[in-house]
Amino acid sequence: MLKGNILTTDGWINGSVRFENGRVTALEGHIADPLANDAPYILPGFIDLHVHGGGGRDIMEGGDAADTVARQHAQHGTTSLLATTMTAPRDELMAVVAGLCEQARHRAAGGARMLGVHLEGPYINPGKLGAQPDAATVAVRDEVLKYLDLAPIRVVTIAPEISGHLDIISELAARGVRVQLGHSLGTYDDAVNALKHGARGFTHLFNAMSPLHHRDPGMVGAALAHAEYAELIPDLLHVHPGAIRAAIRAIPRLYVVTDSTSAAGMPDGEYRLGSQHVTKCMGGVRLADGTLAGSTLTMDQALRNLVSLGIPLADVSNRLSRFPADYLGLEDRGRIARGAWADLVVLDREHALTATYVEGESIVEYA
Fold this sequence. Notes:
Elements (H helix, E strand, L loop, with lengths): L1 E7 L2 E10 L2 E9 L9 E4 L1 E6 L1 E2 L2 E2 L6 H10 L3 E7 L5 H16 L7 E8 L20 H10 L2 E6 L6 H10 L3 E4 L6 H9 L4 E2 L15 H9 L2 E4 L8 H10 L2 E4 L12 E5 L2 E6 L2 E3 L12 H10 L4 H16 L15 E4 L5 E6 L2 E5 L2
Helix pairs in contact: 5-6, 8-9
Family: Belongs to the metallo-dependent hydrolases superfamily. NagA family.
Protein name: N-acetylglucosamine 6-phosphate deacetylase
Cofactor: a divalent metal cation
């Protein structure tokens, strides 16, 4: 049982939440303004749909790397995540995805639940790689379906302007996969057409996509005008606070991701991002040419960053938990409700993490 200011699906209550066998069994309390007392905050656990690594390990390594990554992020309040791949040659990527299927069948003790895989590439525009390796390819139906057979692919990032990709978007959407637009030189019209074909979101909004101009609104303009969902990296390096505010006003269910690399939770130095070598320095991760290459962000720091911009805690929590759960169609995660998984985080009054529970397991207790 935990006591404090609990953010429920109906708003804040001051009271207690009980859980047993991994599920919430009872919620008791009264409606209360959390700013009117000094009790801790109890929020749904964070859901990160874009995770490349952490704790010195990279998802593309295969083996037990995903377990290390899941444990690292659980230390920062992430209770479930999508293991996110990098663009790579077909055989290499197939092998990594096949290995992740086994990882998704179990949850490593002390780690976040892996909900499946986010395939970021290889179906991207080679002219907008960002930090992706130069191995982009055009999507072919049989190959795409092979990936779906190998592992639970929940999200695919794709550049819609490439010939044949609209049909692939339709196919994936029909199979329940969430298609995101990103690493793209596509126009506003390309993005709108992709949304009509079943695309649902945008990958790391503003980054690695055609920008907004008032006479050429690009992918960003399409997202701001039409998207219900989009992911954004609020490390305050990838996106200016003013752009974050604009996106929050425009996109109803904008949600937070870390796009974290193996450098997350590690000291400054050299790390791996897929086949690339990256350097962590001054809070960021970059390629040798200075290109931002993922992040070192953790979800608890993302929460504090957004709160520091004046965004109410309940709104921030939705963007770290409820909206990503809704995006994947998960009704028993991302919220504190009877019958939901007991994925919980506890914060002190300064929004520092003091406890994390994944499916009822206490991950860490902070002093």
